[in-house]
Fold each of these.
Amino acid sequence: MNVCVIGTGYVGLVTGVCLAHMGHDVICVDNNATKVALMQSGKSPIYEPGLDELMQSSMAAGRLRFTTDLKAGVEHGDVLFIAVGTPPLPTGESDTRYVEAVARGIGAHLTGDYKVIVNKSTVPIGSGNWVRQIVLDAIASQDTTHVDRDTLAQSFEVVSNPEFLREGSAVYDTFNPDRIVLGGSSQRAIATMQRLYAPLIRRQFSEKQSLPAIPVVVTDLASAEMIKYAANAFLATKISFINEVANICDRVGADVTQVAQGIGLDSRIGDKFLQAGIGWGGSCFPKDVAALIHTARDYGYEAPLLNAAVQTNQHQRLLALEKLQQMLKILKGKTIGLLGLTFKPNTDDLRDAPALDLIRELVRLGAKVKAYDPIVQPGSHAAQDERLAQVDLATTPMQLAQGCDALVLVTDWVQFQTLDYAAMAAVMRQRIVLDGRNALAPEAIVQAGFAYMGIGYSVDR
Ligand code: NAD
Ligand code: UGA
């Protein structure tokens, strides 16, 4: 099928590349000309394992192109994905201006051929009908002579198809989704989407080919939009829950990693997303939980559980600071080394990363902050972030350790488990490891000469 994906961030680019790999003919549109030029040269503007290889092979096969020309994209696509950002406004509400601009652009360039417009972006409940109206308004003001407006107005339908991929495993998640959600009232549009995803549904590109077909959940528009918010809000709340349990474990001398294992084996609870740590971040959980709270408030409901999940997370994101103060007392003049900066491993994404809160507070308290991140290296695009201006970025873990009073593991990159901690201890001023993700083997760290502290457990209780 002919596909157009508008917006080539983590979701749009991965969706476009994977659909092209599945055999569809894909045009990706972005209004950032620099990004488009980079992608045209076969390079992905984001770090996502496996993405560059798939992108280059589909480009070579002639099934994947990049452009800033929305008109060309709209004319090409039988299915038009809207995958632009929906960042938070200061009120917590979702900023839908980019979705609005794209919907207007689509309406201005419709040709009269049947097209399905797909809301892939995470958008407030009610956005499906809102997008439809914007497209209709754009048609009404379209300066067209060759197709009459009534024909254009009948030529498209809107479907909600929320995305559940995780950054850092986006390609894997796209080929191995737990489910596909399609919201809409038009059977023709839903059937078009099922045809588009048929190879995925049959697990043709999955590592789990022996499993039954991927479930497709067909709903009305509003329910599909709500599924996306409810899924992220549930996962964020689950993490806040285990973090709260961890904080109680710290006080009573229990081990949250054992508790998580013990409760996670109950199939009603499940073992995923029970990793206690210094809080959830990233471009989605914080903004999506805030947006759901905002929506509830708009309809006269205060959503106490979601508010509590956010509050627990705000506290958790500064727990490392509290623990450093317990161990080092005065932080002024101390040097703190951060292992990892991004909100999770295998990504270069710093959006709403807990590291940024920690850096801000450490600097405010007069500490010197060093950091080592495998992707956010000195000179990299991500390192230009102004919030890192006062951070001394190291190129190796050894360089990071030099002169530090404590190391804080902020991001659970797998390679941090096997660093030469004994060698690092030898070049530090004081030997403290605060494992903010409970990702290290505590005994090995202690053997390397460190005092070790995790979140919800420690070795010397
Ligand atoms: P992003 O910020 O990484 O990318 C958005 C892209 O859209 C940018 O490249 C930008 O240049 C482009 N853009 C903006 N306005 C445009 C316009 N008018 N025309 C063409 N291109 C335009 O965003 P993202 O992280 O990919 O998220 C996109 C949406 O998907 C959001 O609603 C987000 O909540 C949702 N989502 C994200 C993830 C994730 O892991 N990042 C997962 C699921 C859902
Ligand atoms: C999350 C969801 O997992 C995706 O399904 C969803 O599509 C996406 O948001 C989105 O809507 O954008 P992502 O933000 O990429 O994906 O990352 P996660 O793996 O969910 O981690 C989010 C945060 O929670 C990270 O800061 C991570 O460190 C933290 N986390 C995760 C924990 O603290 N404990 C856990 O057990 C799991």
Amino acid sequence: KFPGLSDPDLFRQAALIGGNWVQAASGAVIEVTDPATAAVIGTVPDISGDETRAAIKAADIAFQSWRGRPHSERAALLEKWFSLMEEHAEDLALILTMEQGKPLAEARGEIGYGASFVKWFAEEARRIDGSVIPAPAGDRQIVVLKEPVGVSAIITPWNFPNAMITRKVGPALAAGCTVVIKPSEFTPFSALALGVLAERAGIPAGVINIVTGMPAEIGAELTANPVVRKLSFTGSTRVGSILMAQCAPSLKRLSLELGGNAPFIVFDDADLEAAVEGAIASKFRNGGQTCVCSNRILVQAGVYDAFAAKLSARVARMRVGPGTEPGNEIGPMINAPAIDKIRRHVADALAKGAKLLAEAPVPAGGQYAAPVVLGEASTEMELASEETFGPVAPLFRFETEAEAIALANGTPYGLAAYFYTESHKRAWRVGQALEFGMVGLNTGSVSTTVSPFGGVKQSGLGREGARVGIEEYLETKAFHMAGL
Ligand code: ADP
């Protein structure tokens, strides 16, 4: 069923609980489709609440010994897992493209990016250190220890089926936590392939558990079970706030990477060629289906026409088609509701006065959304306040810097923002004024392993990647030793 894999064993149609690859006791499965063709590529078990509880139990048992392993041993196992990801990168990329749709070149990029978190946190595992605080009394020492939080629930979305898992599991395992992962029901096979490689790397049974299936029942157990001490979630703000509420009774630690509504600001003094390239990169990556994709392109009046013309010329030439066909820059959208939302946003914008400046051709049939540039966008349009999550580039015209900042910050979200200017004074001013967790000056990309990733306001809590990423999985213990 899965053509082209050099190691067919990486394609698993089972959940992973306590080191066993299992089906649901009910026999229930869910089908996973290739978004490029709508063909079913396989099934995974629809795991129940009881089975989720068993996975949590397995993670708890494994935690008792995993937390006590020397950091160097945990690091060595993560290094091995990383090497296997590199070795099998081509297969992992193919599985990713088949279930998610992104062009193979981007899938390869995601596998490299995903693996890099495992490497990075293998290195950070060796640097989990505490401190000694001078005590007020002479007979005392206060030792500050860093300890693993405990069993962690990891719930991830379909847009980065590999990297959103490694960005959480890398630091969790490095810190000494064990995990129960619930991948998106649209893209479970990338997660399961990572499970196969973790097993081959020698990561002990129960340290990584993967429960597949529909979210409600699994999510209810993961959030209610008191053994789970931490939830790390990437997905929509709507679901993030539901999960936060579900975690409230047992007061779990939370990391939430939620939606964005990224502004991309082009000032009159910008390098326009660079700004167009940056806009293409930030807007159309993964077909526009990332939480850091520019959602609103704000262009100052003096360069509006020139920028619009350059961007339109580039977008009109974009190649759309199956991700497995070389040369395609944009693959299919993930599902029919995604297409509906994109069409709704474009229709709403056109009805409210937007101008269609460019549209790339799309293959007939299939789940494709045409890349478009819309001119004269305004704040009354749905696409100004909601994430479109598709290849739609709306251009908003502004006159002054103050107006641009007000427009950019005029959203409940605060994940990523980008701006282009050649003035260092403006660079500092605007960089300070933007209320976002990540800001790019003269770049359309802010995602890298070494930099903290995360948002403010309704875009979430906590940071992933970078040195701080491991803190999300550590508790601080103040150990007061008296009578010395
Ligand atoms: P997106 O469509 O942007 O990925 P979602 O927030 O719908 O965002 O999904 C992200 C992840 O959250 C997926 O793994 C999905 O299955 C899961 N999810 C959705 N609803 C729930 C829920 N009620 N409880 C637990 N997980 C959920």
